[in-house]
């Protein structure tokens, strides 16, 4: 399962607003008393949106966020003037830790397979390394083993129109299989690289995540994509919930609410009980009930076990039973005494002083 498209759209809108807010203060500082309508036109937003941005700026400022630390402005009718900029006009100064963190993050971006605008990332890296100078004691190197090589091999097979034999890990079933595929195209979806291909095993078009291809061999035969094969529409994301998929209802705690943002949920009910008879006392005010479709119950079982006590299965009953049985089996394994061949002994020659 992948993150829903609405999240991607929201994240993009937030990023656009952040860029606009960062540009807004120096813009207004250079134009004291500008009319809001004129500023909105220059910035390419509506007057309502600009007023909302100005209201947000009012609660932004330096750490501490007391009245004397926040950005302040004065309004004269439909005109606005920045009266205190909270230091936003001063050049950014990075501490050694901040510079190191930024370098590591940019290095990771540069190494991400299929990342667009890698030249811009490399230029930014060079500028930060030059500015940091001796603040960063040692050069920073980040590597994602095999990712770039794997991506280049996949891209080459697509360009040469060659079939591939791959070993692929399917997370939903927690298994690896060998397949022969006929590549169609490479694409990036939500920050991950995929190869779209005709899978001879499934006899259908499938998407294979590059980082889940454990091994690949380019075959000495051309890719044979059948005429009926059609590329998949990934505009709304990879995972598309359909009514035929299992519906899972979970009771989640506060720290697990990110599930509702990361996965497409059919229902989110804060502090409510599901229809059909869960005791209202079993659902605390800070707990949420969420329902979502999953590819299969085996994936859901592994996901829920990894969440610990923050997630409880409400339905279906068979999933709750599977989770309970596996959790009990794990507890029994920890409670069992060490076998005859597994005793812990002190190293020879040891002793107490």
Describe the structure.
The chain has helices at residues 5-29, 36-43, 47-57, 96-111, 118-132, 147-160, 259-262, 297-307, 317-335; strands at residues 34-35, 72-76, 79-84, 162-170, 175-189, 192-199, 204-209, 213-222, 247-252, 265-270, 288-293, 311-315. With 353 residues, it is α+β, with helices and mostly antiparallel strands. It has 4 domains: 17-84, Orthogonal Bundle (Arc Repressor Mutant, subunit A); 96-135, no CATH class; 147-222, Roll (SH3 type barrels), CATH 2.30.30; 247-334, no CATH class. 15% of the residues are buried. Mean pLDDT is 77; it is low at 1-9 and 340-353. This is Helix-turn-helix transcriptional regulator. InterPro entries: CBASS_pafABC_assoc_protein, PafC-like, PafC_HTH, WCX_dom, WYL_dom. Residues 16-129 form the PafC HTH domain. Residues 248-331 form the WCX domain.
Question: Can you lay out the helices and strands and say which pair or pack?
Answer:
Elements: H1 5-29, E1 34-35, H2 36-43, H3 47-57, E2 72-76, E3 79-84, H4 96-111, H5 118-132, H6 147-160, E4 162-170, E5 175-189, E6 192-199, E7 204-209, E8 213-222, E9 247-252, H7 259-262, E10 265-270, E11 288-293, H8 297-307, E12 311-315, H9 317-335
Antiparallel strand pairs: 1-3, 2-3, 4-5, 4-8, 5-6, 6-7, 9-11, 9-12, 10-11
Helix pairs in contact: 2-3, 4-5, 8-9
């Amino acid at each position: 399962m992948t993150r829903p498209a609405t999240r991607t759209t929201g994240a993009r809108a937030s990023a656009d607003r952040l860029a606009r807010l960062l540009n807004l203060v120096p813009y207004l500082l250079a134009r004291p008393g500008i009319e809001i309508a004129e500023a909105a036109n220059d910035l390419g937003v509506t007057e309502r949106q600009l007023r909302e941005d100005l209201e947000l700026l009012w609660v932004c400022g330096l750490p501490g966020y007391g009245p004397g630390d926040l950005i302040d402005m004065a309004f004269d009718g439909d005109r606005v003037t920045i009266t205190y900029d909270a230091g936003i006009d001063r050049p950014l100064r990075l501490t050694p830790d901040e510079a190191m963190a930024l370098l590591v993050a940019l290095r990771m971006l540069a190494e991400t397979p299929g990342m667009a605008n890698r030249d811009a990332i490399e230029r930014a890296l060079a500028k930060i390394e030059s500015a940091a100078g001796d603040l960063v004691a040692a050069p920073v190197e980040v590597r994602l083993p095999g990712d770039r090589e794997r991506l280049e091999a996949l891209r080459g097979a697509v360009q040469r129109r060659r079939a591939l034999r791959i070993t692929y890990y399917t997370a939903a079933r927690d298994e690896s299989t060998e397949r022969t595929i006929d590549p169609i195209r490479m694409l990036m979806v939500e920050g991950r690289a995929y190869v779209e291909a005709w899978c001879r095993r499934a006899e259908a078009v499938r998407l294979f995540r590059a980082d889940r291809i454990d091994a690949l061999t380019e075959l000495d035969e051309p890719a044979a994509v059948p005429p009926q094969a059609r590329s998949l529409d990934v505009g709304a994301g990879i995972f598309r919930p359909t009514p035929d998929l299992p519906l899972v209802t979970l009771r989640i705690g506060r720290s697990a609410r990110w599930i509702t943002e990361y996965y497409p949920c059919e229902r989110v009910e804060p502090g409510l009980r599901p229809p059909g008879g869960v005791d209202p006392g079993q659902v605390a005010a800070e707990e949420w009930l969420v329902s979502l479709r999953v590819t299969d119950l085996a994936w859901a079982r592994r996901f829920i076990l990894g969440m610990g006590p923050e997630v409880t299965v409400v339905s279906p009953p068979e999933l709750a039973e599977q989770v309970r049985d596996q959790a009990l089996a794990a507890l029994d394994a920890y409670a069992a005494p060490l076998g005859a061949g597994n005793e812990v002994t002190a190293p020879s020659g040891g002793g107490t002083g």
